[in-house]
Amino acid sequence: MKKLKRSARLVEMTQYLLFRPHTLIPLTVFAERYASAKSSISEDLAIIKEVFEDEGLGDLHTLAGAAGGVKFAPKISEAASLDILKEIRHQLEQPDRVLPGGYLYMSDMLGQPNLVNKIGKMFATAFADKPLDVVMTVETKGIPLAYATASFLNLPVVIVRRDNRVTEGSAVSINYVSGSTKRISTMSLGRRALKEQSNVLIVDDYMRAGGTIQGMVDLLQEFRATVQGVGVFVESAEVDEHLIDDYVSVAKLTSVDPKTKQISVLPGSYYNG
């Protein structure tokens, strides 16, 4: 790469780091990329680190030694997360979201890339210190959230299917009981989709009683995998007991009145930490 002015180099280095989160990058990579001395690169990284931390964009970790380098961990500030919650509550509490039977329409929110990316960054912040190999979700609504989270953690995504597909090869299938409807359903995961003894982060869009998430937990036992965390966009408070105890939620749906169209949304457990 041609030699750049320092201002241009800072911009390019910042972009390079943003697109490679949780990846150890040796200083020699930057030195060779920009035809610059390591001392100059270190000074540039110090500037980027300061801006990242001051603006609440994340942490830039430096590892010393021959095998060292820098690693960027995206994070979201408390102030920014509160702004996201305000946005979520404003959208969720719109009366026209109430569907017959007291259900809440949320699909449009999961189709907003800007909002989904913000939620994904929140999950990436909450689980940044966990040893993770993959992000898992069940088809279909949770898929955008899983990919957004995985992009900030630099991890692959594994999707649990509602049925076994020929294109997935041999698979493990289990029956599970939906905590809300008490209906028996099936979920399936191809054996090639997940390595045994993987560390998994489960992400889902909505949790009522937690039957679907518990089903994924049970399915993962067949792979001898470890669930390192569970992230939920919206949890329902209108149940006596959740099947899952340890989880991080962004918002908590406390009530939906089909008659008055009033919806009440409170902060989720993410804001209790």
UniProtKB/TrEMBL annotation:
<keyword id="KW-0238">DNA-binding</keyword>
<dbReference type="InterPro" id="IPR010078">
    <property type="entry name" value="PurR_Bsub"/>
</dbReference>
<feature type="domain" description="Phosphoribosyltransferase">
    <location>
        <begin position="112"/>
        <end position="254"/>
    </location>
</feature>
<dbReference type="InterPro" id="IPR029057">
    <property type="entry name" value="PRTase-like"/>
</dbReference>
<dbReference type="Pfam" id="PF09182">
    <property type="entry name" value="PuR_N"/>
</dbReference>
<keyword id="KW-0805">Transcription regulation</keyword>
<dbReference type="InterPro" id="IPR050118">
    <property type="entry name" value="Pur/Pyrimidine_PRTase"/>
</dbReference>
<comment type="similarity">
    <text>Belongs to the purine/pyrimidine phosphoribosyltransferase family. PurR subfamily.</text>
</comment>
<dbReference type="InterPro" id="IPR000836">
    <property type="entry name" value="PRTase_dom"/>
</dbReference>
<comment type="subunit">
    <text>Homodimer.</text>
</comment>
<dbReference type="GO" id="GO:0045982">
    <property type="term" value="P:negative regulation of purine nucleobase metabolic process"/>
</dbReference>
<feature type="domain" description="Bacterial purine repressor N-terminal">
    <location>
        <begin position="5"/>
        <end position="74"/>
    </location>
</feature>
<protein>
    <submittedName>
        <fullName>Pur operon repressor</fullName>
    </submittedName>
</protein>
<dbReference type="GO" id="GO:0003677">
    <property type="term" value="F:DNA binding"/>
</dbReference>
<dbReference type="InterPro" id="IPR036390">
    <property type="entry name" value="WH_DNA-bd_sf"/>
</dbReference>
<dbReference type="InterPro" id="IPR036388">
    <property type="entry name" value="WH-like_DNA-bd_sf"/>
</dbReference>
<dbReference type="InterPro" id="IPR015265">
    <property type="entry name" value="PuR_N"/>
</dbReference>
<dbReference type="Pfam" id="PF00156">
    <property type="entry name" value="Pribosyltran"/>
</dbReference>
<keyword id="KW-0804">Transcription</keyword>
<dbReference type="GO" id="GO:0045892">
    <property type="term" value="P:negative regulation of DNA-templated transcription"/>
</dbReference>
